[in-house]
Amino acid sequence: MTKDELITKQALEIERLKELVTISDDKLLDINRIICCIGGPLNDNKLKYTNEQLTPFWKISKLIEN
């Protein structure tokens, strides 16, 4: 493999990875929106989750915020 071929291959891989990051970021944002809307804007707990049931959702939300 020549130097030019390697550079081309690496550039294509970088672009593919950038696209995957963008897709992943979009999906994380959607997941966070779903989780945060459990209680709605007024935190009304429309689905009547208990605090015990809500705990995993809040842990997931904190993980994907970073």
Short description:
The chain has one domain (3-65).
What does this structure look like?
The chain has 66 residues and is an all-alpha fold. The protein has one domain. The chain is 74% helix and 0% strand. The chain has two helices and no strands. Helix 1 (3-36) runs antiparallel to helix 2 (51-65). The two termini are 39 Å apart. The mean pLDDT is 85.
Overall pLDDT level: 85
Please tell me the total number of domains.
1
Measured as a percent range, the helix fraction is: over 70%
Low-confidence stretches: none
Tally of strands: 0
Rg over CA atoms: 20 Å
| Structural class by sheet pairing and helices | mainly alpha
Amino-to-carboxy terminus distance: 39 Å
Biggest sheet architecture: none
Approximate strand percentage: under 5%
Order of helices and strands: HH
General form: rod-shaped
Set out the fold topology.
Blueprint: H1 3-36, H2 51-65
Helix pairs in contact: 1-2
Q: Keywords, please?
A:
66 residues, mainly alpha, 2 helices
